[in-house]
Write a structure and sequence with these properties.
The complex is a heterodimer of chains A (about 210) and B (about 290). With about 210 residues, chain A is α+β, with helices and mostly antiparallel strands. Helices cover about 20% and strands about 35% of the residues of chain A. Chain A starts with 5 loop residues before the first strand and ends with a strand. Chain B is about 5% helix and about 30% strand.
């Protein structure tokens, strides 16, 4: 077990919980959600932290006491009973060759690495339905593109830093694009609307080669 | 449709807003809602609506709506501005009745930026994820009002408020926002520069955030901060050193250090600042 998380100040409504890794942040956020407490209005997991916004009328001291008491299960355990979402991908992204060069892998090895590991949604942001996915091995860690594209099409599958992600809608973006998918990431008629909510396990499957 | 408002002019921006979407930050959907929540709540209290009923947020006046169907009780709160019904001055921060066919017009505010036109029963375009707020960041919620938009008005309750007039807020003069030191105040060379400076609100400001002009807050480190959750009131400092104060439609996560977080109640006042206005900060302890 790791040390108790640091509770950093974040105004008079919120506390920023600092954890050691993205995995630890997801686990903490999942464990906090399981407490189903009325003290909390919003839980925002991110790369190393979880921002927790108090419900109106909650004293920050009470929130801090709760946050110090959250005991996340060990890495990833909280999610193992969830089903795995399979995402079918055509690996013909514009940056596939660059990713191969940056990782020292062949293009086929990049595809094999992307499809060959289980990913997990760590946190959302950027756009409704966009999930930052973390994997199990580090071979696909690549920097963002030097220059952002003004338009990345919806369904583009990309890599940046330690994350993989899928653009839910057409937007500007700087991720290294390796493929594309037809899955609908965001559907207001679905409950919940996001296919990839934090904690969700994901496996990429190659199609249409 | 028994009650509605038909839009004839919108000014710089007119949006439907309520108190926003809850609990969806984890999937990338921010809270949104009225930029000045206190003003929206005040309108709803005066009209005996639910506190979170939706109203029209009018940026710098210019709204012109026609009352369609049955007549409606209305009021304008937030930035004080001239309000007329068929040309007759009725004033802001007071309840008035508009007959069927009447035209309600809001002029430019005398001070402040955002006025709220509330109507008994609330405006009721279709909700999205439990809210009727327009989020200019994510594009969720009703489209910005335009000429020809017809907004349904909800059914008023039985009850009336005991109050039909309140004192208009004084939005002139220098503004000092209370702020708690942020979780990343050590990422800039001198976070105290924030409270030592009279900042100017720049014209690159909107519902997402307000950019502040002044001496740049130089970063103290070269590495990048991993993305962190963001919230209304956070003062984020991008590499150019120009602070951004997040407002209602802020992104849910951000990659720049948050050096201060404005006390929640003061963010409503911040949302009334105009480009060119001066704003100061003072440190307070977190409760």
């Amino acid at each position: 077990m790791s040390a108790a998380p640091a509770l950093l100040p974040y105004g008079d409504r919120a506390v920023l919980v600092e954890l050691g890794s993205t995995e630890a942040a997801v686990d903490y956020a999942v464990a906090l959600r399981d407490r189903d407490t009325l003290l909390v209005d919003e839980v925002v997991p991110a790369a190393r932290t979880v921002l927790v916004v108090a419900a109106e009328g909650t004293a920050l001291a009470d929130l801090r006491a709760l946050l110090a008491d959250v005991a996340p299960a060990s890495a990833g355990a909280a999610a193992t009973d969830q089903p795995v979402v399979e995402v079918a991908v055509t690996y013909d992204g514009e940056d596939l060759a660059d990713v191969a060069r940056l990782t020292g892998l062949s293009e086929r090895e990049v595809v094999a690495a992307h499809t060959g590991q289980e990913w997990r949604v760590a946190f959302g942001g950027f756009a409704p339905g966009f999930g930052y996915l973390i994997g199990e091995d580090e071979r696909l860690h690549v920097p963002r593109r030097g220059e952002s594209r003004t338009r990345v099409p919806a369904g583009a599958v990309g890599l940046a830093g330690e994350y993989s992600g899928i653009y839910p809608r057409s937007s500007p973006g700087g991720w290294q694009l390796i493929g594309r998918t037809d899955v609908t990431l965001w559907d207001l008629d679905r409950d919940p609307p996001a296919l990839l909510a934090p904690g969700t396990r994901v496996r990429f499957v190659e199609v249409g080669r | 449709m028994s009650r509605a408002l038909r839009v004839h002019a919108v000014g710089p921006e007119a949006l439907v807003e309520d108190l926003g979407r809850r609990g969806l930050s984890g999937v990338g959907v921010g809270r949104s809602g009225a930029a000045d929540r206190a003003a929206l709540r005040q309108a709803n209290r005066l009209l005996a609506n639910q506190e979170g009923a939706a109203a029209i947020e009018v940026t710098f006046g210019g709204l012109d709506v026609e009352v369609v169907g049955e007549g409606s009780w209305c009021c304008v709160t937030g930035a004080p501005c001239p309000v007329t019904v068929d040309g007759r001055e009725v004033g802001s921060h007071t309840v008035f009745f508009a007959e069927p066919g009447a035209r309600v017009r809001l002029g430019a505010p005398t001070a402040g930026l955002r006025s709220y036109l509330g109507v008994r029963g609330g405006v009721e375009p279709e909700d999205v994820l439990g809210s009727r707020s327009s989020d200019v960041m994510s594009g969720l919620g009703p489209a910005p009002l335009e000429v020809g938009t017809v907004l349904p008005v909800g059914c008023p309750g039985e009850r009336f408020s005991d109050l039909d007039t309140v004192v208009a807020p004084d939005l002139s003069g220098e503004v000092v926002l209370r702020a708690v030191r942020g979780p990343r105040d050590g990422w800039v060379a001198d976070a105290d520069l924030l409270v030592a400076t009279a900042w100017t609100v720049t014209d690159r400001s909107n519902r997402v955030g307000m950019r502040l002009g002044g001496p740049p807050l130089a970063h103290a480190r070269d590495d990048q901060l991993p993305s962190e959750g963001a919230w209304r009131g956070a003062v984020q400092v991008p590499p150019d050193g120009e602070p951004v104060l997040f407002l209602a439609d802020h992104p849910v996560t951000g990659g720049y250090p948050v050096v201060a977080v404005v006390v929640d109640a003061d963010v409503d006042r911040a949302a009334q600042l105009r480009p060119g206005d001066t704003v100061r900060f003072c440190w307070v302890e977190a409760p």
